[in-house]
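Each letter names a residue; structure tokens follow underneath. Both lines appear below:
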Amino acid sequence: MRKHNSVGDLDYIVFLGTGGARFVVSKQLRATGGIWLSLNKTNLIIDPGPGALVRVVNSKYNLRPELLDAILVSHKHIDHSNDVNIMIEAMTGGGTKKRGILLCPQDAIDGEDRVILPYLRSYLQEIVVLKEGLEYYVNDTKISTPIKHKHPGEVYGFLIEFHSAQNKKIKIAYIADTKYFDQLALVYKSDVMIFNVIKLESSELEHLSVEDVKTIIKASNPKAAILTHFGMTMLRARPQIIAEALSRELKVKVFAAYDGMKFDLDI
């Protein structure tokens, strides 16, 4: 498994941004564009935060929003959903082509605090409302939301399963914002695990810390773990140094994502 390879690879992840939490987001100390996945010709974007569209169209990997198959929103907080409307516009050619799927929690599309603009709904081929314990399909890629997270609002992570270009079954976990709880390691056990790790140390905030991530990796033993969505304490501690220390201690390949990083799924 490598972090970089040719642009023509079919199975890869591009980190359009690796920032999280209010100060990193507002100062754009790290970009906040979310995560792009190309999985055997199925294209997904997860949590398109502020600047997502700009990060997509300016990517050196020739990412094209009009080729997106689905937009996945784990929850409606602004660092995860700010660019969802413009990404819907871009995916559908400004509404000229009815296409694409939006997967999001109910509170992202309903109520006075909804983040999806009502007029855009008709642009989409389908809107899927996320629920705990359900499975969904985008082409041949299976996406599931195994458990509701412990974080303000309605929040879900994603389990994504697909067959690679080499016909290998690969499972990817995206563990979105949440307070640590014991079931996380069991339900998200995967080949590749992506962690939103806002903070260096545990606190009352409902986000994962480095110690929480260490506990999950020990129990899950993935082939690779990727840290992203960093807050100020993580940036000050230097995520790369943290990832290297975790790799040595856990004997698992742990990577600290950086803005624009391409991670090839050649496992």
In short: The helical segments are 22-27, 52-57, 78-81, 84-91, 183-187, 210-220, 232-237, 239-250. The domain at 11-264 is CATH 3.60.15.10 (Metallo-beta-lactamase; Chain A).
